[in-house]
Design a protein that fits this description.
The protein is globular and about 55 Å long. The protein has 159 residues and is mainly alpha-helical.
C-alpha cells in the first residue's frame, strides 16, 4: 500500500471515528449526565496516558504543567459544550458545528498574533457561514440553543 493510500485511510478512519463519537455521545447521554460522561472520558484518558508516558511525566517542568492545565481547561470546555450541544440539537448539526473550528482559527490567529489570513480564507468563511445558516436557522432566522452551544465548542476548540 502506498504512503498516500495509508494517509487517506488514516484520515478516513479518524473522520469516521470522530463522526461516530457524536452518535455515541447521544446514546450515552440517555443514561448518564454530561459531566458524568466527561468525567469518565477524562479519567480513562488520564490513566491510559499516564500509563503510557509515566517515565516522561516524571521530568515535566512547572511551565509545562501550567500550559497543560490551561489546555485541559479548554478541552473541558470543548467536551462540555459538545455534550450539551448534542443534548439540545440534532446529532448531524452537532457534528457539523463542533467541527468548524477551522473556520475560527485564522481569525483568532489574527486577533492574538496579528497574522492576517489569506484572501481565500474569507471566501471559505463566507461559504461555511452560508452552510451554517442553511443548516441551523429556523423560519424566524433564530439559532437553536444547542446550535449556539456547538458553535461555542468550535471556538473553544480553535482557541
Amino acid at each position: 500500500m502506498s504512503t498516500k493510500a495509508k494517509a487517506d485511510l488514516a484520515l478516513t478512519s479518524v473522520c469516521l471515528a470522530w463522526g461516530i463519537s457524536y452518535l455515541l455521545t447521544d446514546f450515552c447521554l440517555t443514561e448518564v449526565g454530561t459531566f458524568t460522561l466527561n468525567a469518565f472520558r477524562f479519567l480513562l484518558a488520564f490513566f491510559v496516558a499516564g500509563a503510557l508516558a509515566f517515565k516522561t511525566l516524571k521530568k515535566v517542568s512547572r511551565t509545562t504543567l501550567r500550559f497543560a492545565a490551561l489546555n485541559g481547561l479548554f478541552l473541558l470546555a470543548v467536551y462540555s459544550c459538545s455534550s450539551y450541544g448534542v443534548l439540545y440539537t440534532s446529532v448531524s448539526n452537532a457534528g457539523f458545528l463542533c467541527c468548524i473550528a477551522v473556520l475560527f482559527t485564522p481569525f483568532l490567529e489574527f486577533f492574538f498574533f496579528k497574522k492576517f489570513p489569506p484572501k481565500k480564507t474569507f471566501f471559505v468563511a463566507a461559504v461555511a457561514t452560508v452552510g451554517i445558516a442553511l443548516m441551523t436557522l429556523d423560519e424566524q432566522y433564530h439559532f437553536a440553543f444547542g446550535d449556539l452551544i456547538c458553535i461555542a465548542c468550535s471556538i473553544f476548540y480553535a482557541l
